[in-house]
Amino acid sequence: MVDANDEFMHDPGPHRDWQESFFFSWFDAESDAAGLARIGYRPSNHTADALLYTMRNGVVEGGYARLNARYSGTPHPGRLGVGALEFHMSEPMSKWRILLRGRDEVDLTWTALHAPYDFRAEAPPGQYIPPGIADVHLEQSGRVTGTVRMSGATYEIDGLGQRDKSWGDRDWRTIEGWNWIPMLFGPDFTMNCTQLINGGQAYPCGYIFHDGANHAVTEFTVDYGWAGLQVPSTSQITVTDVSGLRLEIHGGATAQSCLYRKGLVIQESASRFETTIDGQRRTGVGLTEHAWHGGPLGLLRVLPRLRPAMRMVMR
Prior knowledge:
Layout: E1 18-28, E2 33-42, E3 47-56, E4 59-70, E5 80-82, E6 85-91, E7 95-100, E8 105-112, E9 117-118, E10 136-150, E11 153-169, E12 177-186, E13 189-198, E14 201-210, E15 213-228, E16 231-241, E17 246-261, E18 264-277, E19 280-293, H1 295-302, H2 307-314
Antiparallel strand pairs: 1-2, 1-11, 2-3, 3-4, 5-6, 6-7, 7-8, 8-10, 9-10, 10-11, 12-13, 12-19, 13-14, 14-15, 15-16, 16-17, 17-18, 18-19
């Protein structure tokens, strides 16, 4: 099981694509705002990537990217930094601060709502995580508060978010794809439903947090309605956990963005979700992250959608 020590850096494996990754997201329905931030370290060549961007009122608002930045020594979670983006751990497995400094500024505090879920140790017997996707993986839902100043607009964030940390081999070139869908219905009810694709087959994993505890997902299916090539506009989700809870969830995209890494196209769809929990209709916020391996041809086909990400890198 993961513990507080896993917030710190791990001894890297021998593979050149071994990475340690820190990821945060946030969603505020009141402000119609969402955001993502990631820092990933590659000890094999002492390079790191940083990415942060925000979506608001249905479009990508702005952001920051720094790729293949050199670093030395062993990064400490008390102050992780790549370029202008920093993550500060205040309390292990509990509280982090997300900071972006410069022309655009972000100052958010992320506070956990529940204990971390360990995708490897807590998964039901027989669940399978394909190689090459950083198979040691923890996740938590949290509350996110603070301020964003992006592209000339300043606004407050008081919403929910999802974080994950993963480490291990992450070979972007060989990953077939995934569906990674955090859904946050309130401080008492959150979840992450994930399908990892390997050999053309989808393997379910994830958890539902309810009744004060994490419950591993046993079954998960998602059917998309498409707004373009591999662009989910709607999602129909069925999920069951080890407690026997079964939910049918409908999702609708509110904003779209697209990323690309070594043949892997990652379509990020900020979304609203609806379901019935204990006889009550609940609405939630979250993300539909649909990744598929398009190769060089896929890059040409999605190039127009990558313009916001390219602008972030150029800036």
